[in-house]
Amino acid sequence: MKILDGKVIVCSPGRNFVTLKLQTEDGVYGLGDATLNGRELAVASYLRDHVVPLLIGRDARRIEDIWQYLYKGAYWRRGPVTMTAIAAVDTALWDIKGKMSNAPVYQLLGGASRDSVMVYGHASGRTIDETCEAVERYASLGYKAVRAQSSVPGLQSTYGVGKGDVYEPAEAGLAPDTAWSSERYIESVPPLFARLRKEFGFDLHLLHDVHHRLTPIEAGRLGRALEPHRLFWMEDPTPAENQESFRLIRQHTTTPLAVGEVFNSIHDCRTLIQDQLIDYIRTTVVHAGGISHLRKIAALAELYQVRTGSHGATDLSPVCMAAALHFDVSVHNFGIQEYMRHTDETDRVFPHAYRFADGAMHPGDAPGLGVDIDEALASTFPYVRAYLPTARLLDGTVHSW
Ligand code: GCO
Ligand code: MG
To answer: Which of its termini does the chain have fewer beta carbons within 10 Å around, N or C?
Structure first.
């Protein structure tokens, strides 16, 4: 069961994706997502130039050993580029193990802990009316949980508001600047959720993403103002490099807190989890070291009644989505999974077994991850340089995105 070859496939069917395809001498191959939004080629090179040569000839069945070998053997630990590359290898090896065992990966992870995986979709609009209409569309599709964002009055552009049906914040070319005012934003959010509760009642789960834009005390104030609207969570209220800063938010609000989409290891969330400063951990397969490492994070979180809520935006490929669903359906302390529909081109490049019904998803029962890549079609969508926009305060100061 030796690894024969590793191919890095970069394509852009609507947005950029990096995919690792590991081939074994037995003819079985596995896929791993290696997409790091806006920094895609760094991971492609890390894999191609530094990781794949180390994998040739290794036993593909030794998933944990290969993980530790890549993590400890590099000397340089953690970081988004390294951990995304390790995640791709780990995911591909789980895919291979599933195919070798003729079983869907979730069966190898302890089997299903639930029948399906509750997901949330993204509703947004330039006005509260528009956001209400978007939430209504999700509710009518059967979603039980919806993230709601609305433009901040007086600001020209706002993070979180989609263009058309698909939400895609990265833009081709150089990163544009967008204007930000925390004062105006904090004023604008409670009326949005007051209206949504009036229209939809309390049966629908509502979520909101702050995208690291507030200070801890501002976040505490917003969380408190949102308490009557009983959010499922308030996401990324403040940057989390300083995990201690969440203590201040916690002191002021019972609105549940979610964080972790930019984390890449268990060390990024150890204090947050152990001190019960959060309710949901949003680390993902692709950016936090793969299925193996994510399971360790979930196991730590389980001790503290922190549940999972993995990132699932469009910049995570269908390979990551499939892997996330195998993780979600098996892990005991699952909370929710983010799900943003990919473009039709992306779905055609990555045919998959996972399916959506009644607000929930299932990874399907195909052996391995149940996702493939059409390489010929992928090659018709070459890489396009693209970046996320940068946020600036009204006086021009760079702000957190
Ligand atoms: C989310 C994320 C997205 C980001 C994107 C950046 O919660 O889904 O915050 O909104 O814009 O994933 O890479
Ligand atoms: Mg987010």
So the answer is: N
